[in-house]
Amino acid sequence: MARTVCCFPLFGVALIGVISGRAAGISLTDMSRFDLMNAQVETTTYHGRKALKMTEKEAAPGNAFAILKDVPFHDGVIELEVSGAPSKTADPTARGFIGILFRMKEGGSQAECFYLRPSNGRAGDQLARNYSVQYVSPPEWSWRRLREETPGQYESYADMQPGEWTRMRIVVHGKEAALYVGGAQQPCLIVKDMKRGDSQGAVALWIGPGTEGYFRELTITPASTGKGPH
Fold it and tell me: Which residue has the higher pLDDT, 111 or 225?
């Protein structure tokens, strides 16, 4: 069924007809759809809902992800529900890191990414709360580099709890992207200069070190070509 958004409050202005395409629900129960990178996945029921569970295959300072095969993405909307929490054996610095890689190059060599730190959402320390959601562009543009060079520009606050379902909605157009969390009508994080520019690539489910992650209801709505500003 076609889904069209005619007037879209993306970055505080109305972009007419930017997102207009056919929403594709992606099955997360067919393991043959994924290329796994340091990830172990299985289907399960979590908090009463069918989901894909992901953990690290090997504990490492890197991360784990599952690349969707044959799902190229340029502009559009990515929506899903995630639940991340530190695993039982996680380092004390783990925050339940969980999110989405998009416009990924072959093998995960480069990508854009939005992710959550669920344990920070209701932390008693305000500075920790300010680090609840994050944009990165691996490998060069890590959270550490972005925080040191442009503090506060690529991370922000959103209410969430570890181990609970949280809705993520990512809207992408050209070099710009916005992250909406928990059904909010306004984005909690706006990025106007994604580090890979106006590119295209794969989509992948992602978890960071020490995370037990769950994913469900993934939908990708591509933007129509030839409509709206470009």
Answer: 111
Please tell me the distance from the alpha carbon of residue 229 to that of residue 174, in angstroms, as a whole number: 10
In a domain, 66, yes or no: yes
- Using a pLDDT cut of 90, give the percent of the chain over it: 77
Q: What is the DSSP letter of 201?
A: B
**pTM of the predicted model, to two decimals?**
0.87
DSSP string, 104-129: EPGGGSS-EEEEE-GGGTT-SSHHHH
pLDDT above 50: residue 1: no
- On whether residue 150 sits in a domain, the answer given is yes
- Residue from 5, 38, 45 nearest 21 by CA: 5
* 7, part of any domain: no
Alpha-carbon distances of 35 from 56, 69, 90, rounded to whole Å: 14, 7, 24
Residue 11 belongs to a domain: no
**What are the tens digits of pLDDT across the range 26-60?**
989 888 999 999 999 999 999 999 999 999 997 66
CB-based burial label for 42 (10 Å; 0-12, 13-18, 19+): exposed
Q: Residue 115: which domain range?
A: 25-222
Main-chain dihedrals φ then ψ at residue 29, nearest 5 degrees: -105, -10
Total structural domains within the chain: 1
Q: Give the CATH number for residue 63.
A: 2.60.120.560
Query: What residue type is 175 in one-letter code?
Result: K
Buried b (16+ CB within 10 A) or exposed e, 165-176: bbebbbbbbbeb
Query: HSE-up of 99 (CA within 13 Å, CB side)?
Result: 25
Distance (Å) of CA 22 to CA 53, 66, 166:
27, 23, 24
